[in-house]
Amino acid sequence: MKPQPRHIHLSGICGTAMASLAGLLQLQGHHITGSDNTAYPPMSDLLRSLGIPILEPYSASNLNPAPDLVVIGNALSRGNPEVEHVLDQRLHFTSMAALVHEEFLVGRESLVVAGTHGKTTTTSMLAWIYQVAARENSALDPSFLIGGVAENFDTSFQLRPTRTFIIEGDEYDTAFFDKGPKFLHYFPDALILTHVEFDHADIYADLDAVKVAFKRLVNLVPRRGFLVAYDGSENVTECISRAFCRVERYGFGGQADWQMRNLRHADGRSRWEVWRHDALWADLEMHLAGEHNALNATAAAALAAGRGIAKEAIQTALATFKSVKRRLEVCDEINGITIIDDFAHHPTAIRETLRALRSVYPQSRLWAVLEPRSNTLRRKILETELVESLRLADRVVLAGVYQQQRIPDQERLHPEDVVQALIAAGTPAELQPDVEAIIDCIVPQLQPGDVVAILSNGGFGAIYDKLPARLRARQN
């Protein structure tokens, strides 16, 4: 039975999870409005396609007439005009994660994908596996909420009357009034844990604090549940050590329950074997490159198989899996120059992205154009790791730190130090203050065959449109 329609306003609606929630709530028949400071693709495009208005910027007037419920995104804090209006008027409010649990997870089977890397792609793969399996058994047709637009669905959400709900479990905090991780609201019946590393330096003091969050998530899986965990990380091993449920490991290690062997990329396809108990379980393939994507696919396959999905459906799904928007996405190809958009915003993710591009374009000159935008990259705590990751490129261009004034100088990443370290290590690098300067810098140097990886978890000054436009103008 559908809930009674309400007017629900989402403050911070252009966040990936918030936009997805808006779509799910609209499918339930609610009247949805939302606001944000800056709207940018792909979520702004998704919301507009749904006919959901995006009010800009934040303002108390956006909450007039008063909604029945306000969902406050975790990017908002005290001092925001909408937060202050909600508190002053005592409007009914909640968080994204709490509302997801209340509206969509109660009474369903919750399959959660968590980890500091790979969760968006793995969640998308798992949802597609269930979708393919549903061709033979409609009861498997999944509902899902993903922190990105899955290209097989051309959306980040889906709502079905079946029991399965697949959701990306984010370790970031929930709201200004709930500083615990979002994923603690999702109460998984089954869980994938990909990686555990230090991230989100604005809310976690150190790696130990991150591990505590993941240990608490593992502690929510019931005894009847199922946990699939990466076998190549001591941090993951520590976090799952006290699980009460069945645990199976995946990866390249000799003791992995789902052991990967013979990974190779050729002719535009990645292929590898998965072994179970010293016997070949399946040959898997997909078009995505990179060891990290093969690991993601194996994790999704392991969970699906453990929940009874047929091996043939898993193989078909992975072979036909496309990708997620802004994950190694080819934006444009102009006069032999390939422009890649990738969401990488942590040194490990940057490293894996550049490694994957090397495998696909082994003869190309690889450019890395990075905007230090995430709350971790804007700080110097992982500066050494960042330099090592960027050294995988042939040319590096850094933008200034996004909203650097918000980070104390003694904590802030200084891109000029990164550039100097790269040059000292033999990698040509330079710092440019803004997008226009970056484009002025690289366009005269770009040659046919070059690959330009644009790395940011934000809009990056619309460089994704401006760079191709300048290259086309150069053609003329």
Order of strands, main sheet, comes to 8-7-9-6-12-13-14-15-16-17
Q: What number of domains?
A: 3
Which CATH architecture of the largest domain would you pick? 3-Layer(aba) Sandwich
The major beta sheet can be summarized as: 10 strands, mixed
CATH superfamily of the largest domain: Mur-like, catalytic domain
| Radius of gyration of CA atoms, rounded to a whole number | 22 Å
What is the CATH domain class of the largest domain? Alpha Beta
Strand content: 25-35%
- Count every helix, treating DSSP H or I runs of 4 or more residues as helices: 14
Query: Roughly how much helix do the residues carry, as a percent range?
Result: 25-40%
Distance between the termini: 59 Å
Q: Regions with pLDDT < 50 over 5+ consecutive residues?
A: none
- In the CATH hierarchy, the third-tier topology of the largest domain is known as UDP-N-acetylmuramoyl-L-alanine:D-glutamate ligase
**How confident overall, as mean pLDDT?**
93
Overall, the morphology is globular
Structural class: alpha/beta
Instruction: Give a count of the beta strands, DSSP E runs of length 2 or more.
Output: 23
Explain what this protein looks like in three dimensions:
There is one protein chain. The protein is α/β, with parallel strands linked by helices and about 475 residues long. It has 3 domains: about 5-95, NAD(P)-binding Rossmann-like Domain (Rossmann fold, 3-Layer(aba) Sandwich), CATH 3.40.50; about 100-320, UDP-N-acetylmuramoyl-L-alanine:D-glutamate ligase, CATH 3.40.1190.10; about 330-475, Mur ligase, C-terminal domain (Protein-Tyrosine Phosphatase, Chain A, Alpha-Beta Complex), CATH 3.90.190. It contains 14 helices and 23 strands. The strands form 4 sheets. It has a 10-stranded mixed sheet, sandwiched between helices. It has a 6-stranded mixed sheet with strand order 18-19-23-20-21-22, sandwiched between helices. The chain has a 5-stranded parallel sheet with strand order 3-2-1-4-5, sandwiched between helices. Strand 4 (about 70), helix 3 (about 80-90) and strand 5 (about 95) form a beta-alpha-beta unit. Helix 1 packs parallel to helix 2 (about 45-50), helix 5 crosses helix 8 (about 290-305) and helix 11 (about 385-390) crosses helix 12 (about 415-425).
